[in-house]
Amino acid sequence: MAFVGGALGVGASTALAATAAYASGAAFAGTLVGGFVVRTVVAIGLSALAAKLAPSPAAANASPIERMVNFAQPVSYAEWVYGRTRKGGPIGFTGFANDKRWYVPILAAHPIKGVVQHRLDERIVSLTDAVDTNASNISENPIAGYGRVDVFTGDPGQAVHAGLDAAFAEITSEFDFEGLAGAVIWAARPPNESYTQVFPGGRQWQYSPVLDGKKDLYDPRDGQYKFSSNAALVFADWCVNVMGREVDWDEIADEADACDLVEPDAAGIPRKRWELNGTLSDEQDYETHRAQLATACDAFVYDRTDGKVGFTVGRWLEPELTLGPDDFLSFELTEGQYGADAPDEVAALYTEPDNGWRETPSGAWVARIAAKPVTDQPQIFMVTNHFQAARLNKRLARSKHAQYQLRGTIGMKGYEILGGRSGGRAHRFVRFVHPELGLDLYLEVGEMARESLGLFSLSANTVQPDDFAFTAAEEPARPTYEAVEGQTGVPVPSGFHVATAGNGAATFEWDAQSPAYLQDIRYRRLSFLPLWTQSAVGSEQTTLNVSDLVSGEDYEVQIRNRSNGLGVSDWSASETFTA
């Protein structure tokens, strides 16, 4: 196992402490107040975090499509997968034996819940229950018979893959990939006349499945360790298990409840307010981790006066602290937009499942009408639904077009902003009253830094409760991304229905189709989990059993035909059922 740990930058006993992100983050912890939010910065909000998410060619903001590959190099960086996402990974082993190319992509540097959808290159494939590791378990033509995929999730007791062990003399029981998630894959060479159909990329497939990641997130509300995309639980796990810091679990419970509030989007699909789905790499620096996580849920991050990391996810909270001119050693209050280049509209780049889990521009939130609008496109790749991206667009636009910006130097009152008198919870919003100027404003802290003992610099901008309100009626039109199908003439399957359902399982049936067609079936839970799970069915099959459903929950399911030439029919009308 040591060779794998070394290649991924993860050691058996120092999996996190040895990472670059942890090392850089740990250096922040040595001061009386401050340490987690970069050097002497002790609180940071959306307006300051957004600058880190500008489009950039740097690896720090690696886009989703850049992760959908399998690459081989001497040392690869550890990757943490949160929520549901699509990705590939580095090659942990590759070799040629028995006329097969064997390779082992590593999907995550930790155990995962499992793979939701298998993808070889851009093909969605389903696996059979074939046990023999030398037999193909891929059901789709034309690649059926030419490959096998065996996923390992990194659970305790994981053993070396039997087929890999038998094929290579140098493989021993130590090659168990303990604590890592990935897949053992082999690809066999087809006849020359079908080579490009089986391997359209000219080589073995890139394995980039859709997977549910880390499954040991602690939820203080029920005391359980679980898989979750809840933004508060994800952020807390990153703080504790990646960065090695402490959090206040009572605070996490409150923030997790705020994240779980459900609202319908413009399509009527119920959406939880704040979810985080995506990948963090040790190749990225600490600031990029924090910016990707915090911006995607509009979080305010701060160093608590008790030494723990605190954060508040995006929502309006009535200010409980009032500041006036006498609280500042000096301050400057400016009126007008946030800089001469404040954008006319904001259209974030987020990860869209319906676009193959690629980066996708959202519909734009228009702050002001312009003949040639300036568009800001922050990269929020941990967001995987348009409704959440649109909510953030509004917040970013409003913050950059705030009526007033305040910059100043403040004394001991800074400790009070950090929660010195309120149980360690900071004040994200404050009221600013200036009698001489006749001002009574709501301010949101953008950034606060400790300059010396008892002395802080503060930047903030005005905010209104309406900045945080967002409904389906405000969601801009969502871009659509569908395959160009042309006039394929492929018919929709007939006779599709749910034969049986219950106890967390269901059986789907349909009429026999032409042998020229395969079937794709997709289903989704109607509450809380709007993402489709899709399965490909082999030729001449007329039933499909699924058993990974949540008992008692309502689902919808659809079917379509697909030809070997990749022409597809429309999706059928939805059938609904209770698992």
Main attributes of the structure:
9-stranded mixed sheet, single chain, 579 residues, 10 helices, alpha+beta, Immunoglobulin-like
Describe this structure in words.
This protein is α+β, with helices and mostly antiparallel strands and 579 residues long. Among the domains are: 89-207, no CATH class; 497-578, Immunoglobulin-like (Sandwich), CATH 2.60.40.10. Helices cover 14% and strands 32% of the residues. It is built from ten helices and 36 strands. The strands form ten sheets. Strands 1, 17, 18, 19, 20, 26, 27, 28 and 29 form a nine-stranded mixed beta sheet that branches. A five-stranded mixed beta sheet has the order 2-5-6-10-9, covered by helices on one side. It has a four-stranded antiparallel beta sheet with strand order 4-11-7-8, with no helix packed on it. Strand 12 (217-219) and strand 13 form a beta hairpin. The radius of gyration is 26 Å and the shape is elongated.
Number of helices: 10
Structural class by secondary-structure content:
alpha+beta
CA(first)-CA(last) distance? 41 Å
Which spans have pLDDT < 50 for at least 5 consecutive residues? 1-35
Shape annotation: elongated
Number of strands: 36
What kind of sheet is the major sheet?
Answer: 9 strands, mixed
The residue-averaged pLDDT reads 85
Cα-atom radius of gyration? 26 Å
What helical percentage do the residues reach? 10-25%
Strand content: 25-35%
